[in-house]
Amino acid sequence: MKHILFLVVFLFATSVVSADDIQKGDSCLAAYNISEALGYYKDALKAKPTTAVRMKIAECLFRQRNYARCISALASTATDSLDHDSMRRLFYSHQKLQHHSKTFAFGKEIIRRWPMDGEIVADLAREYLSTDHADEAEKLCNSYWLRDETNHAVNDIMADIYFVQRQYDIACNSYLLLLQEGDSTYKNLFNVGICYEQMEKPEQARKALDKAIELSDSDIAAPLYHQGAVLNTLKEYPQAMACFRRAMSVLYPSKAVLFACHRGLAEGYYAGKDYRRAVDLFLQAEHDDPTSITTPYYTGVCYDMLDQPAKARSAYQRFLKLAEAFEHPGKDLRDMMERARK
Question: Vertex 242, ends 241 and 244: CA angle to 5°?
Fold first, then answer.
């Protein structure tokens, strides 16, 4: 009898401690103190391991964007005992980690249990589309659309599906409806422009691409070269050429990036004593950044090793001209200058 009484008291005390930890964790979570909330929930799980506590732990880990541990926290829990929010967290965790098969599985299970979750329908359809399953995406959206044709997220992905399937007339009308609702994003405007281009309606294409270029701040090449093609069709050749030039300037990396790449490659060949390849790359690096002090020095060393003294002398002279203008050269630079003078 004493043992039974002790067990009852112990279970009651454990339940009270667990409830207290959960309450404290909930308070911390409400205040966005995720780390402290996680600590309380873990204590509660030790005292009384329940699915409800595991879901709270998973929520904290998801909010911290620790997707792998969020999945792990619910790994031993039966799917049908999880609530809607926990299922969504598992769906998005697998999606973030690019676990495509798991993303499909959780997405389909959520839609089976909560068929009107339009956000999951749209995001699962986009996952299908990004993995070359456009037909599956279309079936999913059409099934939802029969129940609700007003969901903006679903309508948006449906437009993209038609676009990928090259159903340009349907895609164009879908994008135009989105634009009428105020969804004037770069993606929608650009795709409308492409639709009109493919439908051989250059004037409409030009207007849409102009807006897309404006939204992209002219730092994306695609709308520029498509606009160039449209302007060629309209026989506005000077404007078309300007678009193509702007597109090319966007596609080429900056001089700083080119210098870093050419110089890095040159140093690799130099270290491997492949001076013929190294010298060409050092010369290219000099062209990318004429202010680099040490690059012409290594160009000169390479020519020396290739027994081309005239070219070596010219490179050393370029180096010395830059180095001597440097106000406070360090020891390494002074040593290089001394060797170059010899």
Answer: 65
Q: Please, which pLDDT band fits residue 10 given cuts at 50, 70 and 90?
A: very low
Name the nearest CA neighbour of 165 among 146, 139, 145, 190. Answer: 139
- What would you report as the CA-atom Rg of the chain, rounded to the nearest whole angstrom? 32
pLDDT for the residue 161: 97
pLDDT at 326 over 80: no
Contact (Cβ atoms closer than 8 angstroms) between residue 40 and residue 31:
no
Residue 108 corresponds to which amino acid? K
128-137, 256-265, 333-342: which is most confident: 128-137
**Beta strands of the chain (E only): which ranges?**
none
CA separation for the pair 42, 218 (Å, rounded): 51
Identify the DSSP state of 293: S
What is the rounded average pLDDT of the residues 165-176? 97
Q: In 3-state terms, the chain is what percent helix, strand and coil (to 5)?
A: 80, 0, 20
Q: Are 324 and 301 in contact (CB under 8 A)?
A: no
Count of all residues that appear for the chain in the document: 342
Single-letter code of the amino acid located at 50: T
Q: How many angstroms from the chain centroid is the CA of residue 101? A: 20
Q: 23-59: per-residue pLDDT in tens?
A: 999 999 999 999 999 999 999 999 889 999 999 999 9
- Could you give phi then psi for residue 89, rounded to 5 degrees? -65, -40
Two structure tokens written together for 73: 């926290």
Q: How far apart are CA 242 and CA 267, in angstroms?
A: 38
Selection from 102, 81, 76 nearest residue 90 by Cα = 102
Encoding tokens for residue 201?
């309606």
Q: Is the pTM of this model over 0.90?
A: no
Token pair, residue 314, equals 């010219």
